[in-house]
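Weekly structure sync - notes
Attendees: PM, LS, DV (DV joined late)
Agenda: review two folding runs queued last week.

Item 1: First target. Sequence and structure tokens pasted below for the record.
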Amino acid sequence: MSLILISNQSNAQAEPMYSQYMFNMMSINPAYAGSRNAPSLTALMRNQWLDFPGAPKTSILTFDMPMQKNKLGIAFKLTDDILGVEHTTTINGAMSSRVSLSEKSTLSVGLEFGMQFYKANLLLVNPFVANDPAFSQNLNGQVPTLGTGVFYNTDKFYVGLSSPNLLKSRLAVDEVNYIRGYAMKELHLFLASGYVFDIGENVKYKPSILIKSVGGSPFQFDLNSTIWLSNILGIGASYRTEDAYVGMLELQVNSSFRIGYAYDKTISHLSQYNQGSHEIMLKMEFGSDKKGIVSPRYF
């Protein structure tokens, strides 16, 4: 592989990105655990920057459910992220504490924790300098993760603030050396919000926004608009600042199963080197409580 994705310098590592975050907010906010009032299993697979050597490939599997009459939520999250010769797997557990502020509104606070396992197959790299000692052996290591968030929702509105990893950990090769290219992560903050408008008997309109902040980088905005028809078909479009335009389709196959697809058209300087990104989401819910699932079609 001639494209070197790992440098000798420490660069801030970014959290995996998803275009369909609004349908799987467990991926960005642990306080979301249990918010749908039913056990929920979601899988999301993202193949980014087609035809670009070493492009990211990310998969995430989440499961969450309410407990203690919806006063608590628990969740498990497995993330697998491949970038060039780097491979990162993260296993997290999460718990949220939920308080009903009124009949239709809930505030929750969540905490997630786990381990991140990292490896870099450096022997596959063709370095610019022959016999570069920086690429003389494969590397691997693990670090703990700790994230937190708050989430408020009614049946038609939500807002959440979260940070998926508060720890600034470095992966050590030994007591002296650290894995090159895997730096202490800068603090990531996510602010997400959305609202559902009734614009017809069988038509809903849901705008949403995600604001991402990473230390040392400018804010990035995801602006999304989705139209829902008869609570079955969702058609959406997004704009990610200085990065991509996104088209989305969501199909509620039945009361328990949903499938989603997103296509990103790159508009950054990388646009001439790739054919866009594909993302598929599968979501299964296993029943509901007597009051039903809160806003089952929208978030």
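Item 2: Second target, run right after the first with the same settings.
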Amino acid sequence: MYSLSSCWNSHRHTDGRAMLQEIRELGFEYAELSHGIRISLLPGVIEAVEAGEIKISTVHNFCPLPIGVTHAAPNLFKFTSSDARERENAYRHSLKTIETAIRLKAKLVVLHMGCVDMKDYTDKLTAMMERGETESPKYRKLCEEVESKREQKKERPVQFANDMLRRLVQESQSHDLLLGVENREALEEIPFESDLQFFFSEFANTNVRYWHDLGHAQIKENLGFIHHAMHLESMSEHLAGFHIHDVQFPARDHCAPGTGMIDYAALKPFVRPEHIRVFEFGPRVPVEELKAGVAHVKAIWGEA
């Protein structure tokens, strides 16, 4: 299954049906509802799906956006917040996402799990990477500092996030709906790659799966924290699907495949027919580049 995320075109539409028709006209039978779906778009989305014009593969939390929020905001309410009111808002709006997914017969909800409260190392290291300083002692020292700080600070936010996920499992597991925990590009966001195997053992025999974002993983490789293909192989038994886009060095993501540095052939051994494959392009990607990117991936990974 190949799908196209509405993050590419939702900002251009005031009618959800027209938004999905544009995706269908590009040859996609499935669409992902991204984390930028304003509540005003939802009636048209429901109409398009109920009319059989398109199917929904996946829904990205939070969807629809909370009333009054008009831009993509997947981290608006964090599962890991120390503020109980924010966590409750995260739960309430995640339930709305789950309800939307169930109504539209989506297969999976994509989730961000939150972060450890610490200074922004990701942007600092990315700026150093742009300047070609990854071999410097300062860069290596900062990487060691990141890992040390994360370990020191992670216990409470991880507990909050896992407790939240258990509540969402209770609300979704009986509906044949998967919860996809997405890998993130920011070094502060959880779960950390080193914790993923333990994390999934905690959620064994539930509807929780791993959702692999190619661009985020490539940025983590560029920063020196993982090896992209080896990481994907290690997570293959938990894998439900992909966000597909490319990265132009060092960290410009959501580009069309074939215009960046991701080695799709190296990842092909871990792609199975049952995996959901969602192209997640930035809104500035032109139509012809989008089509070429889709063709690039299909030529390597196969049509189905």
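Discussion on item 2: The two ends are 6 Å apart (CA to CA).
Action: LS to circulate a short write-up before next sync.
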